[in-house]
Amino acid sequence: MVRIAELADLTETTVRTIRFYHQIGLLPIPQHRDGRRDYDLSHLARLVRIRWLAQAGIPLTTIAVMLEQQPAIRERPDPTAALTDLRAVAEAVGDEIERLHARRDRLQHLIDVVERDGHLSPMPASMVRFYDEMSARATDQDAQRMIRRERDFMELAFYRGDMPAESVAAYEGLSEAALAESSGLFGEMADRIQHEDRLDPREMDRMAAAVVDRVSRHLGADLHRLLGSVDMETARRAVGLYVRLAEPGQRRVAQIIGDAILTMIEKEQPT
After folding, report:
1. Which of 231, 117, 229, 110 lies closest to 172, judged by CA?
2. In terms of C-beta distances under 8 Å and separation of at least 24 residues, what long-range contacts does 57-62 make, across chains too?
């Protein structure tokens, strides 16, 4: 007969774990003898088997079923049920290993991004730098709010895979003049979009044309090559998401700008 502390020591577990096994009915509670509970060899053997299976990653609920399926000593054992459970657990462990490998790969990608670019964002580094620059140049809260919303949208779109990879080219290698123009465009649009109800369709079209013109001039000779390789379905998802996430009073302008960008891309698509 042994006390619970000695039982825990013999099986390299803890008193707390043994009491938990009692609580869930996995290990029988011994009867009191002289005011204390003494465990015999049958408790020790069952606890050893429980720990042996648990350390292999088998859930406690499965262990309970497996132990109940074990025959009496005089009976010939049938391993079928136990093998089924063990193979199921082994398959689950294999799936978990694959998930852990994928998680490790994602973490390594994040490490590489931070080491290379110094930022932590689903967006490419050139786009992060662009929006940082636009925020620094913004002269009023409305413009800063618009820049923040567009940046948040871009992060979501890249995270979801709803942004064409070619779009990053519009943010790379921007000159000082191009940055100043973009900053001015944000300021102008922020001012005008706050009063969308006062904008007539011609003014909305002009704003959309200004966005398209800036992108076209920046891409220059690469325009046809880059836009011609854009997947139109991805581009349409990006515009749909852009309109969906626009503030209610600004969705009409967002749709016009999005349609103008789609038209620009469609013109360069191979026939």
Report:
1. 117
2. 57/89, 57/93, 58/85, 58/86, 58/89, 59/89, 60/24, 60/26, 62/89
Across the range 58-78, mean pLDDT stands at 72
- At residue 132, the 3 state secondary structure works out as helix
Average pLDDT along the chain? 86
Q: How far apart are CA 245 and CA 149, in angstroms?
A: 9
E strands present in the chain? 32-33, 36-37
CB-based contacts of 205: which residues, under 8 Å, 6+ apart?
Answer: 256, 260
- Is the separation of the CB atoms in 57 and 18 below 8 Å? no
Q: Is 50 exposed, middle or buried (0-12, 13-18, 19+ CB in 10 A)?
A: buried
Q: Could you report the per-residue pLDDT of 230-269, keeping only the tens digit for each?
A: 999 999 999 999 999 988 778 888 899 999 999 999 999 9
Bridge partners of residue 33, in order along the sequence:
36
pLDDT of residue 62: 87
Amino acid identity at 225? R
Nearest to 134 by CA among 170, 209, 188, 187: 187
Q: What is the pTM of this model?
A: 0.62
Q: What is the pLDDT of residue 78?
A: 63
CB 69 within 8 A of CB 63: no
DSSP 184-245: HHHHHHHHHHTTGGG--HHHHHHHHHHHHHHHHHHHGGGHHHHHHTS-HHHHHHHHHHHHHH
